[in-house]
Amino acid sequence: MRLRLHRLLTAGLLVSAWSAKAAPVVTEPPTPGTGAQSPAPPQAPVPAPAAIVLANHRAVYDLSLDENGSSRSVESARGRIVIDFRGDACRGYTMLTRQVTELSSGETGSRLSDMRSTTFEGGQAREFRFKTTTLTNNQPAAPVDGTATDQGNAVTVKLKGGAKPFTVEGPVLFPSEHMRRLIEAARAGQSTLSVKVFDGSDDGKKVYDTFAVIGHTETGPAPASGSTRDKPLREGAIASMPHWPVRLSYYTEGAGERTPIYTLGFDLYENGVSGALKLDYGDFAILGDMTTLDIDAAGGKGDKEAGKGCTP
User: Fold this and answer.
1) Region 221-230: what's the mean pLDDT?
2) How far apart are the C-alpha atoms of 24 and 46, rounded to whole Å?
3) Residues 148 and 155 sit within 8 Å (Cβ to Cβ)
């Protein structure tokens, strides 16, 4: 089974930047001779919400089997995800991902998967390019290489290799825009978010229905005291940053009651960093422990100037 933890992480790590403040509220003076009371003092300007800014970054997650859950089909698991994200809202976003996973079972033996993925998402979330190569037990699978274009009310996907293009009615979100929507919903106090998502995963022919359950705002380090998990998230300013527990389920397209293909649990930080990862396939679950987080503070210039237009 091809693990897809990196697909949510395709959105990258995010940082916040304050945009321009709203204009002050103006109150009209009372009409003379009406006996009106003295006018109330002008209200203070209300700051606009912080813009969501995608940061250039490199992050590493170590993977392991969740020993506390039921594991009927897998006896052990180990692996690593390395992601490298570059770009901004003007140039678009490029993500390089490598995910190596080894699953072991007494019935089927050991299975080693080595997946490398490159994606590009336009800054306005209108275009998406993807290419994935996979080795399973050192045997290569056919690469998945294609493009997706958003027309507003539909997404058209074209795959290299002779496959016929197909169109899916929308709206359909690409990964970075999906992450933005999750953060916006969490900030607004929404408890759920249901959207369609295309990320080019598997054979590149699937659009997923997703349903996210978002918990209440939390502050302070998420891991228990003394824990070694997600150490980079317990250091510096991010340790006290607001975050939300999220449970995100992926479904095949359709109607009626369905069982999710898999469910991703994680802590979504206000700056978009994801910690406490848990990918639940039903028969077994994989944990993702962040071991390295490097953010390039000089990156994302186009995002920080969002709303001002892009310089040619």
Assistant:
1) 64
2) 7
3) yes
